[in-house]
Amino acid sequence: MVLFTDFGEGSIYVGEMKGVILKVNPSRTIVDLTHNIHPQNVLQGAFLLKETFHFFPRGSIFVCVVDPGVGSTRKGLAIETRNFIFLGPDNGLLFPAVCEDRVNRVVSIENKAQLPEKISSTFHGRDVFAHVAAKLSKGLDIGELGPVIHKIKDLDLPTPRVEGGKIVCTVLFIDSFGNIITNLKRSGFREELSRSLKISIGGSCYTLPLVNSYHEVKENQPLTLFDSFGCLELSVNRGSASEYFGVKCGDVISIMLDKEKNLIS
Amino acid sequence: MVLFTDFGEGSIYVGEMKGVILKVNPSRTIVDLTHNIHPQNVLQGAFLLKETFHFFPRGSIFVCVVDPGVGSTRKGLAIETRNFIFLGPDNGLLFPAVCEDRVNRVVSIENKAQLPEKISSTFHGRDVFAHVAAKLSKGLDIGELGPVIHKIKDLDLPTPRVEGGKIVCTVLFIDSFGNIITNLKRSGFREELSRSLKISIGGSCYTLPLVNSYHEVKENQPLTLFDSFGCLELSVNRGSASEYFGVKCGDVISIMLDKEKNLIS
Amino acid sequence: MVLFTDFGEGSIYVGEMKGVILKVNPSRTIVDLTHNIHPQNVLQGAFLLKETFHFFPRGSIFVCVVDPGVGSTRKGLAIETRNFIFLGPDNGLLFPAVCEDRVNRVVSIENKAQLPEKISSTFHGRDVFAHVAAKLSKGLDIGELGPVIHKIKDLDLPTPRVEGGKIVCTVLFIDSFGNIITNLKRSGFREELSRSLKISIGGSCYTLPLVNSYHEVKENQPLTLFDSFGCLELSVNRGSASEYFGVKCGDVISIMLDKEKNLIS
Q: How far does Cα C97 stand from its chain's mean position?
């Protein structure tokens, strides 16, 4: 059982979810993937879930809660994919991950017989998703949770676009070191890349080395690399790129195309 | 085994407690309820423990450490209730929770034979409570920990009071979204409530909608609702109510009584 | 399996490591010692690891990642000590801990047959250390990971020095309460100590009581004590010493020697 929320690490809300799960299935291992999704940032959640779910063992049940629309008419979903089960709100959060792993079955969680008597209108993570996750972990079939549905809310992660001699990409995540992670994948480039990139951020222009690891530049010097997600990352060796460049999640970064080999393939 | 402290999430002190527990009982599941209690805020700890312990399975052992008086003459308690065991300092932290679950037996942890040889005077969470919790989890009876006592320090959670046409309530918790959680329970109101509340906060007056879930107001608009604790909560849809209203833990909020149906029953 | 990193609590990088471990060994208990080491502060990591590893049960595998040189030529180490296995970069992080527990065998992790096909150049915590830790937890001998080596990078934790009538010590850690933990051990003093210490911090001089526990001084009053690590700690009862004194990690603090009994033995 893997928990993935925007509740903030150490939130008592996470503790309550764990209590609910253990009450139904006391022997279940519960792992925190992260609870540090930027509050109510469904896009960031969708990106990070897609990039990380595959590290977990086959059969894992993901309980995913970034849910600004809780209590509205948005559905609660249970999705069986090739290797996993994903639970979460129907707001696009699960969409990129379940597409990547291929969907077998989607169920709208509606069957009151499988839900607690009292359900708050503000915390379905605890009252709906954690509760049914624990039941699934004990062998309940997702078909028992409600009707199969054939359409869920999609969410297209922003892709970099080429525009007048530059690649425009989006910052999707800033990690605890201050590294800036963009949506530009290594796989989007031809094999050979130049050894530096011209990058425009909020009106300023930088020429930054493109390296393989942080230590290749001096301390407190900026750099770019393709990181452990395979994404273009702006970093400062032993420093915070987010502070250095004044960049935050959702910002746009442009990469100047001055050599043909840097073009997106 | 459930850990509940004010050490801050990811504190190495929590890690040390887990080591101590696993050294005595390597197979025990350890769950973090929260470690984000405001440092040394016994009142907040007592409130949140009371609101959340019941989510855990019967037989859980709660190790609760919000302990500004560590090393003083305050007792260390082991309390057996109807469904659980609670361990923690005798400073009121456990009082509301154990009263709610009904007390069977209270023991003052004093028996040196059950304690480590060296006990620091600053970290009983590790040297006393985690240690004996692990022993209890292996079957030790709490009676082995020391003498039964019949009086513990009480702590009355503040209750809202009606005062000259308004209900005066207290902010007990601000969550990671910035939601403001008060001590005013839904159950204190008659069934039918008006659809908005007049609220006075630090000299300013607001008329706020009383809704069921956050999405019922526009983004960045303030609202009130009864939350997943059943408490009156001030929130801002997709924003931080704590920043919006400039409110912090311990502050007082007044609700104007302009309709009879809003009176506390 | 014990995780110890500077990724920040709740970092998704920690979640990825847990996924990798569970994929290889789904039944393994994983415990977080801490993830709040100050980013890339190898010295602080080395200090805290040395002070805390012994709380864990014999046979624990420590996965330790404070690794600013990831992707460089620095080796990845697997060290078998008398009671534990330690995994981490060869940058001194493990040195004080493994010396304390006595080293049996040191292996440089190089055997590609035991490593994943794709290894990022920025996240060996996930791709190397978590992966081989999981294999070791299933019984793999550390000798299978690569050649035995006989020299690793050492790291000497700074020790207090006596200089012209004062003891000069270093701040190695500031905890979530704001307590200031120095490298000066109780064991460095003769049995009897005076009841106050004259301390010089950044040009200012303070006479502070030396007590056994926080509550011995009034609220918001500063104090010193030997803490649960056995180290001299500056604290403020129910407050933050770090804010009070304006001290941060790495700063130097001097203790005036005005009585013979305060001399380091």
A: 8
Q: What is the ipTM of this complex?
A: 0.93
Residue from C62, C119, C103, C108 nearest C85 by CA: C62
Asked whether residue C108 falls in the same domain as residue C208, the answer is: no
- Say yes or no: A114 and A184 in one domain: no
pLDDT digits (tens, 9 = 90+) for C185-208: 987 676 567 789 999 998 899 999
The pLDDT tens digits of the residues spanning B69-99 come to 998 999 999 999 999 999 999 999 999 999 9
Is some CB atom of chain B closer than 8 A to the CB atom of C35? Answer: yes
Interchain contact, C176 vs B71, CB within 8 Å: no
Tell whether C225 is covered by a domain: yes
Contact flag A121-B34 (C-beta cutoff 8 Å):
no
Distance CA A23, CA A130 (A): 10
Question: How buried is residue B241: exposed, middle or buried, by Cβ count under 10 Å (0-12/13-18/19+)?
Answer: buried
Which chain A residues are closer than 8 Å to C69 by Cβ? 215
Residues B88 and B170 in one domain: no
User: Which residues constitute the domain of residue C254?
Assistant: 161-262
Query: Is B127 an 8 Å CB contact of chain C?
Result: yes
Q: How many domains does chain B have?
A: 2
Give the pLDDT of residue C10.
84
Per-residue model confidence (pLDDT) at position A264:
44
Q: Tell me, yes or no, whether C50 and C175 share the same domain.
A: no
**Do residue C137 and residue C225 come from a single domain?**
no
Asked whether residue C73 is assigned to any structural domain, the reply reads yes
Given a cut of 60, whether residue B220 has pLDDT beyond it is yes
Rg, chain C, Cα only: 21
Yes or no, beta carbons of B72 and C32 under 8 Å apart = no
Q: Is residue A156 part of a domain?
A: no
Q: Are residues A113 and A209 in the same domain?
A: no
Model pLDDT, residue B164: 84
**Are the C-beta atoms of B60 and B2 separated by less than 8 Å?**
yes
Could you tell me the sign of the dihedral formed by the alpha carbons of C234, C159, C251, B35, in that order? negative
**Digit-coded pLDDT (tens) for C39-83:** 999 999 999 999 999 999 999 999 999 999 998 999 999 999 999
Tokens standing for residue A181: 């992670």
Q: Where are the alpha helices (DSSP H) in chain C?
A: 12-24, 42-52, 95-101, 124, 131-137, 241-245
Q: Which two tokens stand for residue B254?
A: 């007044």
**Going along chain A, which residue ranges are E strands?**
2-5, 31-34, 61-65, 76-81, 85-89, 103-108, 161-163, 166-174, 180-185, 196-201, 204-211, 222-226, 231-236, 252-256
If asked whether residues A169 and A137 sit together in one domain, one would say: no
Amino acid residing at C131: H
A216-228 pLDDT per residue, tens:
999 999 999 999 9
Q: For A9, which of B9, B177, B238 is closest by C-beta distance?
A: B9
Residues of B in Cβ contact (< 8 Å) with C55:
16, 19-20, 23, 126
- Is C72–A176 a contact, with Cβ atoms under 8 angstroms apart? no
